[in-house]
Design goal:
Blueprint: H1 6-9, E1 17-19, H2 30-45, H3 47-68, E2 76-79, H4 82-91, E3 100-104, H5 109-122, E4 125-129, H6 140-148, E5 155-161, H7 173-183, E6 186-191, E7 211-215, E8 227-231, H8 233-236, H9 263-268, H10 277-292, H11 294-313, E9 332-335, E10 344-345, E11 348-349, E12 355-357, E13 362-363, E14 366-371, H12 379-392
The structure holds pyridoxal-5'-phosphate (PLP).
Length: 393
């Protein structure tokens, strides 16, 4: 039923347990790990040359990322994780005095802390909503309405996930962006889980979003330490990095000339020393996606998610939101209050044989078990999980 990707992962995958927590960090194909190791060694052979050549290569990687998410490379900047990308966006934002930032209780803890820091620093108000109605069987229009009805005259920005960390609900961003634009509310998206899961398209679907941060080390299976931000061209003139470096004014050093005609991308470039091998490893990651084709991998992820949901449903386990809902879930979240027999040792289910690792995302007021199968998971693994769960319910 599923395509087997076993050969792509077996060199580094630990098969002594079943990893159903790909949503925290995806496993990279072996070729991606091998490239990073090779890059590390190659760089060390001539560090000066490696440093000088890195910038041109980063620009080409940014162009490849642009092709993957249908965005202009010049509208992007790379960062090691979405937390840093969201910091650049949120901390760099200039909002009128007395503004309110609206967000939800479904957001990721570190992003909430950025918002709290921003609100405190700029004396803005920060309001959290608990959009429980999203769990109901609603349409995309109704989902958007649930959020839009919360806007007041003070609301100047909405910070929200593309795919919520706990219940996996995918926000219908095209519709949400269009309402935000009409109401004058900036739409800032935490897209940690979307790249590699959804076919992102910044030139059509997402062109009314204002700011977007996405991780490449989750569903994209990129090297750990890879992420990006996309900034709508209408905001680029006012978007500055939160600190200075070589390229933050127009006099960039000659080695960074590939960025020279792209003032925004140049300004946002990390133009100082760091370890480049994670970003270089993205080359093999894009090769992997090209080899199989995006649609095929998206389909293979969705097949596993549905197989697991259906298999567990047959044993009496209903997720917080279904992958088949009109506003679908992309990750499987289960209410732990309904699973009293489940105990955990770290992220492992106590007593599971084979051992099963799950996600236990921290969401205020909720205790959730999250299952995030990816293409590295085999059908036999998912069958073993369904059997193990049936003994515990
Ligand atoms: C919704 C969401 N936002 C942000 C993050 C932060 O990701 P990172 O630690 O890679 O910055 C995560 C990580 O799990 C997440 O799930």
């Amino acid at each position: 039923m599923f395509h087997s990707f076993t050969g792509e992962f077996e060199k580094y995958k630990d098969s002594r347990f079943i990893n159903l927590n790909n949503g925290t960090l995806g496993l990279s194909p072996s070729s991606v790990i091998d490239q990073q190791k090779t890059e590390l060694e190659r760089f060390e052979m001539n560090t000066s040359m490696g440093y000088g050549e890195a910038w041109q290569r980063l620009w080409v990687i940014q162009e490849r990322l642009g092709l993957f998410i249908n965005a202009k490379a010049s509208d992007l900047f790379l960062r090691p994780n979405v937390t840093l990308a969201m910091n650049e966006i949120i901390m760099g934002l200039s909002l009128p005095d007395d503004s309110e930032i609206l967000t939800t209780h479904f957001e990721y803890g570190a992003v909430v802390k950025i918002l709290k820091m921003k609100a405190q620093k700029d004396r803005l108000s920060l309001r959290f909503i608990q959009p429980e109605d999203l769990y109901k069987d609603i349409t995309a229009d109704q989902a958007v309405e649930i959020l839009a009805k919360e806007f007041t005259d003070k609301t100047k920005a909405l910070v929200i996930s593309h795919i919520f960390i706990g219940n996996g609900i995918e926000m219908p961003l095209k519709k949400l962006a269009s309402i935000c634009r009409k109401k004058g509310v900036l739409l800032i998206i935490d897209g940690a889980h979307a790249p590699g899961m959804l076919n992102l398209d910044f030139k059509s679907d997402l062109n009314d979003v204002d700011f977007y941060g996405g991780n490449l080390h989750k569903w994209m299976m990129g090297p750990k330490g890879t992420a990006f931000a996309w900034v709508n061209p209408i905001h680029q003139e006012k978007t500055f990095p939160v600190y200075g470096s070589w390229t933050t004014d127009s006099n960039a050093p000659p080695t960074m000339h590939s960025f020279a005609n792209h003032p925004f991308a140049q300004r946002m470039l990390w133009s100082h020393t760091f370890s480049f091998n994670a970003f270089f490893g993205l080359e093999k990651c894009f090769d992997f996606w090209d080899q199989y084709g995006k649609e095929f991998i998206f389909k293979e992820i969705a097949l596993r998610m549905k197989y697991l949901e259906d298999g567990l449903q047959a044993k009496g386990l209903t997720p917080l939101k279904s992958v088949n809902a009109k506003v679908p879930a992309r990750l499987l979240g289960y209410d732990l209050k309904q699973l009293p027999k489940f105990e955990f040792e770290g992220l492992f289910i106590k007593g599971s044989d084979p051992r099963i690792q799950v996600g236990l995302p921290r969401i205020p007021g909720a205790s959730i078990l999250r299952l995030t199968p990816h293409i590295q998971n085999t059908q036999a693994e998912l069958d073993a999980v369904i059997l193990a769960f049936s003994r515990l319910v």
